[in-house]
Write a structure and sequence with these properties.
The protein has about 675 residues and is of the alpha+beta class. It is built from 15 helices and 35 strands. The strands form ten sheets. It has a five-stranded mixed sheet with strand order 16-15-14-19-20, sandwiched between helices. Strands 23-22-28-26-27 form a five-stranded mixed sheet, with helices on one face. A hairpin with a 2-residue loop joins strand 3 and strand 4. It is elongated. The relative contact order is 0.09.
Length: about 675
């Protein structure tokens, strides 16, 4: 009979570090200002299921994760169902964004304005990512760092509480390919686990290796795993950058494989034993027993170790702008003998300023049963500490449309943040009115407007709320994206009032059938000569003949159609009798037919003031309401590529996209000029 275990309590933190070579699981709970680690388990992949931090075999990774989970469950006698994980920084894209917001008057700056300012800067960064050509697929927003605020051109580090009219913000935003995130979620689902929080591996690692109280110093953490090396830099109290190198411990292992003809697992064992044994024994791939001194192995390792140190130094200088005050090496790769000295040499630093991480772990975590000073525990410990001490905002569950939401960013989260992190954008919030159909009828430009967009619906815990709403633990978000309106369309018969009128017109100089769908730029001429060879269908002819306004209907018994129509413009024969106004004059049934006007709306038109100019719009079907978002198309904005601030106001007050408008409302949608 299967043992019944109690469910994972809400205060129990389960962290999994899904590495290239192994998976490490930690379970703990917060006690005071530190996390008490109760159990640690590690399991190596039986085959190469991951390459450079990216999952290749989802089923295999899920299987190993389930094995680690089962061992932890057995030790703690509880059922683990919710897990905190971290994504490798592979293919990380970082972009800068700038946004300006000019207020109608001087105002005190609160959280709402700061959120609007930062969101605009992040949107600008996303636009820059699109323009850079790097965005080959779907990306998730991982997080951002504000690099500068300006109030009326004066730099400030904190905006809240200040007064100003022109606000500016610069951010550095980070985006992660969706494949990295989606594969992690799929592997956890395979293991029967629900993802409670997700952060970046370098962010998690620095939270363990360099606690917040040490970040006033310019320090760098390099977490060297098997396939990747995650790097994060901090100064002046905050993390200022993070990146990843696809050079790590596997490069050392592969050098051993090539030199001594071993398989991967044997090379891994030799690498770990080189620092502890004078003589190494192994069996090569030919089945021959081999014995060699550890010094011979170190000679093979040294060049690869130097290449790893050079790449780490290059990446560190790249994100830090030069050598830092000190470097902490973490991860299993940091155990390589001689690596700290090689990194110090590559950075031209005092060797005493480069050390292996672990000495600071006790500041944020402790254990009665486990030795936590192992640098290999940097990332799993960082995940647990980040979740347990509230160092990432996603250490609680938020659901989006019935499923756990993907959450990354530090700090306060709004509903808009959650939507952006889960693949939605501004177009999903506001939709787009269908494109208008523009044609020319008898020299007059005619515009058939597209259908208005159906607005998005955002409910938080069952209540409809704006996207700026701050999300709390356990919130349930229900979001239905806006649906763009259908483009404007008309058939030629609908445009001219009847198939009969369509039968005697030319579109772009040629006849068309009555059901021809007009296209943008079409030129229509009514009451025109229609060549016999291109005459409209018999069905259209019969409809035209039955119409009291059909041209030639009264004369059809006396004159054949051939006597009215030229066989070909090019022949110019004297027997060609063109059908003209003069030829048909005096016959009231053959007078030029005016283009009929559209039928009167069943509801009266709506009118507003947009940027102080009157705007009249046709009533929506069934008299539906107009929203502020419906007027965006008339302001000429492109919300997919915003690079300047937009002020939305209704009757002098700040307005949201879903604000319902009343007749006579004064709407302000202003786009600022770009900064000189």
């Amino acid at each position: 009979m299967e043992e019944v275990r109690e469910q994972q309590s809400r205060d129990l933190i389960f962290a999994l570090d899904i590495g290239t070579r192994s998976i490490i699981g930690m379970v703990g709970r917060t006690e005071g200002e530190r996390v008490h680690i109760l159990a640690v388990e590690k399991q190596e992949h039986s085959k190469r299921a991951m390459i450079d931090g990216q999952i290749e075999d989802i089923v295999q990774v899920g299987k190993v994760a389930a094995q680690v989970t089962a061992r932890l469950e057995a030790r703690l006698n509880c059922k683990l169902t919710r897990v905190c994980i971290a994504a490798a920084g592979r293919a990380l894209h970082t972009e800068a964004g700038h946004f300006e917001l000019e207020l109608p008057e001087v105002r005190r700056i609160g959280e709402d304005l700061i959120g609007q300012l930062e969101a605009g800067a992040v949107s600008a960064a996303e636009s820059n990512l699109n323009k850079s050509g790097q965005r080959l697929g779907r990306f998730y927003l991982v997080g951002y760092t504000v690099s500068q605020y300006l109030v009326d051109s004066y730099p400030l580090s904190i905006l809240k509480g200040h007064n100003g009219q022109k606000l500016e913000c610069d951010v550095v935003a980070t985006f992660l390919p969706s494949e990295v995130v989606d594969s992690l979620y799929s592997a956890m689902q395979t293991a029967g686990l629900e993802v409670l929080s997700l952060t970046l591996e370098p962010i998690a690692a620095i939270n363990a290796a360099i606690p917040p109280e040490l970040r006033l110093l310019n320090l760098v953490m390099a977490d060297i795993g098997a396939g990747t090396s995650d790097i994060a830099a901090c100064r002046d109290g905050s993390v200022v950058g993070y990146t990843m190198a696809t050079v790590a411990g596997d490069e050392i292992t592969e050098a051993i494989m090539r030199a001594f003809l071993t398989d991967f697992s044997t090379a891994e064992r030799l690498k770990s034993e080189a620092a502890r044994r004078e003589t190494l024994r192994f069996t090569d791939i030919l089945g021959l027993e081999q014995e060699l001194p550890s010094s011979a192995l170190k000679e093979v390792i040294t060049p690869a170790e130097g290449q790893l140190a050079d790449e780490l130094a290059r990446r560190i200088r790249e994100i830090n702008g030069g050598a830092p005050s000190a470097v902490f090496l973490a991860g299993g790769g940091s155990k390589l003998e001689g690596l700290p000295l090689a990194v110090a040499s590559a950075l031209e630093m005092d060797p005493r300023r480069v050390s292996v991480a672990g000495s600071n772990f006790k500041m944020s975590a402790f254990s009665d049963t486990e030795e936590l000073n192992d640098p290999e525990y940097t990332t799993p410990l960082g995940i647990a500490v980040s979740a347990g001490l509230g160092m990432i905002s996603d250490s609680y569950r938020v659901s989006l449309n019935g499923h756990p939401a993907k959450l990354f960013r530090s700090g306060t989260l709004t509903a808009l943040d959650v939507l952006q992190m889960n693949g939605y954008n501004y177009a999903d919030l506001i939709g787009r009115t269908g494109s208008s159909l523009s044609v020319t009828i008898d020299g007059q430009r005619t515009l058939y407007r597209g259908e208005p967009a159906e607005p998005s619906s955002l409910r938080i815990n069952g209540t409809e709320l704006p996207p700026s709403t701050v999300i709390q633990a356990a919130d349930a978000i229900e979001f239905t994206p806006a649906r763009s309106g259908m483009p404007g369309r008309r058939s030629i018969s609908e445009a001219l009032g009847s198939p009969a009128n369509a039968a005697v017109c030319l579109v772009n100089g040629a006849p068309v059938s009555p059901d021809y769908e007009l296209r943008p730029g079409d030129t229509v001429v009514t009451n025109a000569i229609v060549p016999v060879k291109a005459a409209v269908s018999e069905k259209a002819d019969s409809e035209a003949a039955s119409s009291p306004h059909a041209i030639g209907a009264s004369a059809s018994s006396a004159l054949s159609q051939e006597s009215f129509v030229a066989e070909s413009q090019s022949t110019g024969g004297s027997e060609d009798i063109p059908l003209t106004d003069t030829t048909l004059a005096g016959n009231p049934e053959t007078e030029r037919i005016p283009v009929p006007q559209p039928a009167e709306e069943s509801f009266p038109p709506r009118w507003f003031y947009l940027n102080d100019a009157p705007l009249e719009l046709p009533a929506k079907p069934k008299g539906g309401p107009y929203y502020l978002m419906d007027l965006l198309e008339y302001a000429g904005l492109d919300f997919e590529h915003l690079d300047r601030p937009v002020t939305l106001r209704v009757n002098g007050e700040s307005g949201s996209f879903m604000r319902v408008l009343a007749d006579g409302d004064r709407v302000c949608i202003q786009l600022e000029e770009p900064r000189a």
